[in-house]
Amino acid sequence: MIRVVARSRPGHPWVFSNEVVEPPVAQLPPGGAVEVFDPRGKFLGRGYANAHSLIAIRLFAGSQESPDDAGLFRRRLAEALALRERVVPGRRSYRLCAGEADGLPGLIIDRYESVLSVQVTTMGMEVRRELIRDALEAVVRPTGVVFRGDVPLRTMEGLPLERGIWWGEVPARVPFEENGVRFGADLVEGQKTGFFFDQAENRAFLAQRVRGARVLDVYAHLGAWALVAMKHGAASATTIESSAPANALIRQNAEENELAVDVRHGDAEAEMARLPSGSFEAVCIDPPAFAKNRKSAGAALGAYKRVNQAAARLVAPGGLLLTSSCSHHIEAERFAEAVVHGARAAGRRLQLVRRGGQAPDHPILPGMPETEYLKHLVFVAR
To answer: How much is the average pLDDT of 221-237?
Structure first.
């Protein structure tokens, strides 16, 4: 039995180390199942613990459930699958499990048709890997699974970094489709879990507004913004990406879809500086998370202002600037201010025409703001 201070975050599944009253945090079982109560003895939930983490306990089971029950994992994954079939009907590739938002904290699963990319970030999920495998085989029946245990969060949890094929057959280039474009992703060596499905609906918005347009895709990764634009009638598309392997995949994806894309390899800001002002009717800028924690938020806002200044300069008058932040620690209004200030520094005036966010296969857990992270803004540049 674990007692914690009265919590002021109803519905939030995390218990921080300084909230544990008894026993001492150091006595929490690493990855072990725990039952949590408030000081008055009110039951708060069951979950798993890790004395080495700032987040000492993650709750995900009720009074009649066990964190070590194979049936619980099967039910949660079945619920997650049913949700995707409802909110992204017809799609065969998407985020299948979004950690806390799907009731399985520390577990991220992306589905690429019959192949899965699984990311485990916590001690509690690491010690339950066989339960995860059992549930995946029972509910999804994948032909191959990649394990991505190479994120810094694992180091903070006291876990080793590792990645590779977990089981089954995984091709070097795993095929999938989004917005009518066939892609191939490297799930073992590529970034994170292989692709960024959270932008699917924002790319669908772009697809309906680019006929005849010149499009620039900055921080392109697999070139999704550019390729979707070309598939839906853009006149031309240019990508900027600093990863040589990613650029190779962009070229392969373009060739498979019989689309022409100008692939530029290099630093985003440096490459944008080489392009003439007003060269594009749509500029899509989707940088990595500049703020890894709250302390870095100030520096991150400066970076967002700088890169959006460079991007705004390239938008033709009346064209679109589509810009994103995936940093949870950056508030939506402060991000918008950084973009507007950057555009002003470039001598441009912006009109906001759309606010977007993560696609519905990345659900948000009410009461847990950490699960709502993606900010996407669409401006008309003047």
So the answer is: 98
Amino acid at site 302: G
Q: Where are the beta strands (DSSP E) in the chain?
A: 2-4, 14-16, 20-22, 33-37, 43-49, 55-61, 93-98, 107-112, 115-120, 144-149, 162-168, 174-178, 181-185, 214-218, 236-241, 262-265, 280-285, 315-325, 350-356, 375-381
Q: CA distances (Å), 117 to each of 19, 168, 300, in order?
A: 34, 12, 29
Helical H segments across 199-296, by residue range = 200-207, 224-231, 244-256, 268-273
Average pLDDT over residues 58-66: 94
Mean residue pLDDT of the chain comes to 95
Residue pointed to by tokens 């938002």:
101
Which domains does the chain carry?
Answer: 2-61 (2.30.130.10), 70-168 (3.30.750.80), 174-381 (3.40.50.150)
pTM of the model: 0.95
Please give the positions annotated as active site: 326
pLDDT, one tens digit per residue, over 323-356 is 999 988 899 999 999 999 999 999 999 999 999 9
The tokens 């009518």 sit on which residue? 180
Residue type, 198: D
Q: Looking at the chain, list the stretches that DSSP marks H as alpha helix, in order from N- to C-terminal side.
A: 70-87, 123-126, 129-139, 152-156, 200-207, 224-231, 244-256, 268-273, 297-313, 332-345
